[in-house]
Amino acid sequence: MSSIQFNIQSLFALSPGLENPADWAKWQQNQCQWPGDAAAPASSAIPAMMRRRMSPLSKIVVQVAATLSASEDIVYSVFSSRHGELQRTVQLLQEILAGEPASPTAFSQSVHNTAAGLFTIATKKPIPATSLAGGVDGFHYALLEAFIYLNQHPDKKVLVVDFDAPLPEIYSQFEPYTNAPYAMGMVLKAGDQVQIQRAAPAPKPKDTTLPQALEFYRQWLNKTSSFEMESARQHWAWQVGDFKCSD
Q1: Which of 61, 75, 140, 205 could in theory staple to 201 by disulfide, Cβ–Cβ 3.0 to 4.6 A?
Q2: Architecture of the domain delimited by 2-240
Q3: Which residue has the higher pLDDT, 68 or 71?
């Protein structure tokens, strides 16, 4: 067993129809039901010229990252996503198969680290970034990456953003969740407000019904001080000592 720990300086999440803490609180109270036919969240932190070329998912991610970093001295960032820009990648491949020329812009923004790169461009902040694709446990691996950095630099702050969107229709049979596109971000610093113990999973683990980042946020909104998440490879036991972001 191993453990990681940190303090949460600030937290912000976005999804269509869920743009502030009150919206998310209603979502949590309504058994995590997603608003129907909701408009895309505002993306005012992104320059208009950039917004026109970005995918809907990238807009959400960069808006979250830019909002959190606006008033914080961030020195390192970690972006995690199970599928990244798969929607755009599939569209690009379908256009190529149809004999159409590949769009250079679409190609450059179809990679897994698209959001991380666009974040630094939009904010004009040369912040080092790591992009992770850790499968179902990607959110926890991002937290582990942040913890390692904070352990070496306890006076610094790290931005962590986990995001994803439903799979393209061609891959719908592999879709484990029913969530809408989302991005959930946190600014972390050294401390022991949150402690996570990692262990081997049970013989028959039960996956959460939400991506792990959203499962965490659901528990946070519910002020659950002790909860667990599990996948086929990992078991994560959470202890939260305080449900207030640090000053």
Answers
A1: 205
A2: 3-Layer(aba) Sandwich (3.40)
A3: 68
